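Journal club prep, notes for RB
We'll compare a predicted complex against what the paper describes. Inputs for the zinc ion case:
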Amino acid sequence: MEPAKIAPSLLAADFAHLADEVARIEDHVDFLHVDVMDGHYVPNLSFGMPVIESLRATTKLYFDCHLMVTNPVSLFEPLKAAGADLVTCHIEVLPDPTEAARRAADAGLDFGLVLNPATPFEAVEPFVELCDLLLVMTVVPGFGGQGFIAEALPKVEAARKWVDSHGLRADIEVDGGITPVTAVAARHAGADAFVAGTAIFRAPDPVAAVAELRAAVGDE
Ligand code: DX5
Ligand code: ZN
């Protein structure tokens, strides 16, 4: 398995001081997880292209954009223009994501798929080869600060087995309720990328919180 990647979720940052929040952790993390919500696929709104573009000017971090939206493909070009690096789309809105993967490549974006807790691994199985990243949700998407759903762990195991046995490149990322405790279970199940919002940005010392997460998943 790859060394663990830590991806703070911007959703938990102080929106009045986004550039400072990101600058503080930039040298200690691997991606920035950017939750784009449309108030339709999920019952919440977050931020979109103008915020991403403003932040792009302040950091070199890789922007892992998690699209909790009903029409993700229509956002690929504007997200790329705003500075996104990777887009992940929910399989629940794109039962056959082959065309979406092509459109992401055409836009110059890395591509990934997301599975909700209720969606079985089989839904993405034929498409994992198209993915740079496979995101297994460990909460029902829409809000930060929820409790980790341990029932998602067998799906992480299935994904890890599939990726390894087929020699695929996809990182396996978990998102929702990740703490130094739950990250250990996800790491054992085979995750190599860990999104954490509350556990990093709401910690008294976000840099120490990142170090604590890395130590928990076995990397110093
Ligand atoms: C939830 C989002 C998550 C969220 C994670 O819908 O996809 O990325 O920000 O937040 P925590 O780490 O607080 O569960
Ligand atoms: Zn997310």
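Talking point for the session: The beta strands are 5-8, 31-37, 62-68, 86-90, 110-115, 133-137, 171-175, 193-196.
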